[in-house]
Amino acid sequence: MKNYYIGIVLLCMGFHLSAVAQQLSVSVLRTEYRKNPMGIDAAEPRLSWKIVSSKRNVMQSAYQIRVGTDSVGLSAGKALVWDSGDQKTEASVFVRYGGSPLKSDTRYYWQVRIKDNQGNRSGWSDVNSWHTGLFSPAEWSAQWISTSLADTLEGPSPVFRKVFATEGKVKSAVLYITAHGLYEAQLNGKRIGNDQLAPGWTSYHKRLLYQSYEVTNLLKDGQNAIGFTLGDGWYRGYLGFDRKRGYYGKRLSALAQLVIEYANGTKKTINSDGSWKYTEGPILFSDLYNGEIYDARLEKKDWATVNYNDASWKKAVVMKADKEILESSISPLAQKHEQFSVVKLIKTPKGETVLDFGQNLVGWVSFKLSAKAGSYIQLEHGEVLDKAGNFYDANLRHAKQHVKYIFKGGGLESYEPHFTYQGFRYVKITGDIAKVEPSSFKAVAVYSNMDPTGTFHTSNPLLNQLQHNIEWGQKGNFMDVPTDCPQRDERLGWTGDAQVFFRTAAFNMDVAGFFTKWMKDVASDQLKNGSVPFVVPNVLGENEAGSTGWGDVATIIPWNMYVAYGDKEILATQYPSMKGWVDFMTSKSKDDLWNTGFHFGDWLFYRPNDDNDGRSAITDKYLIAQAFYAHSTQLLINTARVLGKKADEDHYTALLDRIKKAFLKEYITPNGRMVSGSQTAYVLALNFDMLPENLRPQAVDFLVRNIESYGNHLTTGFLGTPYLCHVLSRFGRTDIAYRLLLQETYPSWLYPVKMGATTIWERWDGIKQDGSFQTTDMNSFNHYAYGAIGDWMYRVMAGLDTDESAPGYKKVRIAPRPGGNITHAAAELETLYGLTVSDWKIENGIFKLKVVIPANATAEISLPAAADTRVTESGTELNAVKRIGKISTQGKDVGFSIGSGTYQFEYPMK
């Protein structure tokens, strides 16, 4: 009986301890945004974690971190290189490592536990790790190697290999590798890593990224073989629209350093050097724009294995090349993601055989086919069919997007391209294949490996398709740099496109590492006078720089990254670049008015037929320039304030006052009418606070009348569109914003959706209403800029927004704005603190709002049209709910603050 009672007590204690553990735990550990990353070269990397609790109003009150070089010892609290001790703070993101100086090429293990504000302590988290890269160029003992072939811009891809031996029990092995060109590496016949198009694209003469790969499991006792294949890529392939090759160089080369650590603590390094051998492989031609030619008859079977006979291969040539510019890769490289099957096999009116994959995507087609030796298949890629239903690729300009495969014969052969990618939905098949079997082909989506973070859906199927199109426009164009389009002979990092889309991008996916890397490229390519190139990396030349709305990428993205992620380091890193851009505009101004230089203006705005009334949506380019001059100056002021640069804050505050006065004098009549009466002119003036408050109501009226005069259609281009609906909502005209969003006829966001689009178009009417196309000179069907409307849908329609006083969603703003006969809208976002949700619906006149706020965060709630109504939360009167902040009436709305947890608000909608 005694043992029985003891068992009951222990069982109850077990349940109690289990319940406590479930109430508070730590998960999703990150080092510099990444989980268990390789190649961290920060001297004091930043650590982040998420807190899981079933309770409401949970805040962290303290944390303890411990770090070691042995996972077993760490879990036992032994042999630590850092024990933070209890730190009484809410900080759970970007906590800097504070232990002994880190060593390069070393794995560090860490875990964390926390206390909350309700007296609970979590257990230790699971053990996570980071591996350091090579901190100094002097640590690169490897040599650059190339071929002895004469420089050629269209030669076959060379293949390199080396055999080496291990000399004991291996504890770990890490490969550090980069290339002038692109590389694919193998160890003992197995591909190393999942990255595609490595090492990515930077201004190679200024900074070159290397990757770090854990390869311990690929090594064998005794003899091993390592090798890699090189491709032209951005380094020496076609770039831009002038049909030029070899922008960065004419000779492919690579640098590889395999560091093996044995169980006894000794290390051995296998370097790329003159002992390596090379030959030509089966890739006869490979280019990012023009595709690939692959002759399977030339394959070197098992070429990266020990037993392969390389007697006929040549000795690699050692080259001199700069190692000082090497940096560890911090961004997610491209990887393979979704696969698509053929949805339809089409025989066109011209008799062509075309595969329809149902989605405009970026990547390539893989296949498994059999054919006799020497026969071939060619795949030609296009985005749309023409009006008659025939394959169409005229909008690709000089880019061919052809993939040709020559069979070796003897059975089923599998293939996918290596150093190229295509933008397509449709694939035309030519060659020697007598019968095309759709099941033999798969389309593979390839894009930078960013975690999805946000979802958005509504009661309107067209808006849901619009969101789908926005996401796929982002996926297709985030290929290591944010490209304008992924299919024609361009695919450049246009700065204007990137800045207008950033807020939308940061909702859909975790773009922190992606844009941290690219903004370093922006600063790297920024001219000495502070001017910012049109494209980054800059392959157009120094004269192609300095346009308003494009150069402002230098200020807009760093500030918005800070708002979205709460990362002050991006501001500190980019501050010289931000300041340089504002100072450039100042240097080009006279009497504080910037009215000089070339500007793209409101790119691709709607141009109506002027035959009847002579009007057009043209916005004065210098008016736009002055507005963005003010905006960037304001962002620089904000940044100086965050970074504690008081002198700069004061200096640029005075400058901003003069900029706005110059704007009023030059572009505004005494009655508040603007010299350009376009939607974009009024939108920019209102959004950037260029007008004194007494002139803003008239400006809003002018804007609304303009919209209504176009039959509730927008006329904005790249620079006006992102702010259009935001301005209308800010000034009380959300009804007009909904009219624009839900407009189904041209020009509108939903017109392409109604025309069958699966991505965002470059032009409002890429396909005209009669089925014909816009000009072939510039007509991409995968161009994300107009997808910037997503930002309004998430932040205003669904109502999930940031608060700049506590950025990175430390404080969340939930303020949905229903309208447009929409009965349901939901946004979910995985923030650095955890899942945040704003999900509303209207059922039988009752407004229902579900809100989720993660632990260690708070929220300000605004319930629309809830004044003078009975509001409940999970069935309890709002004013009786514990720990709800002070309830106030804000016009027709009701506002209050809440802590973490899940809430269900309901009230009758008036």
Automatic annotation (TrEMBL):
Domain Alpha-L-rhamnosidase concanavalin-like: 347-447
GO molecular function, one term: alpha-L-rhamnosidase activity
Keyword Amino-acid biosynthesis recorded: no
Domain Alpha-L-rhamnosidase C-terminal: start-end pairs: 804-875
Top-tier EC class: hydrolase
Residue span(s) of domain Bacterial alpha-L-rhamnosidase N-terminal: 169-332
Lineage, top ranks: Bacteria, Pseudomonadati, Bacteroidota, Sphingobacteriia, Sphingobacteriales
Signal peptide: 1-21
Cited SUPFAM superfamilies: Six-hairpin glycosidases
EC annotation from Swiss-Prot or TrEMBL: 3.2.1.40
UniProtKB keywords: Hydrolase, Signal
Domain Alpha-L-rhamnosidase six-hairpin glycosidase: 453-796
UniProt name for this protein: alpha-L-rhamnosidase
Record field: catalytic activity: Hydrolysis of terminal non-reducing alpha-L-rhamnose residues in alpha-L-rhamnosides
Superkingdom to which the source organism belongs: Bacteria
GO biological process: carbohydrate metabolic process
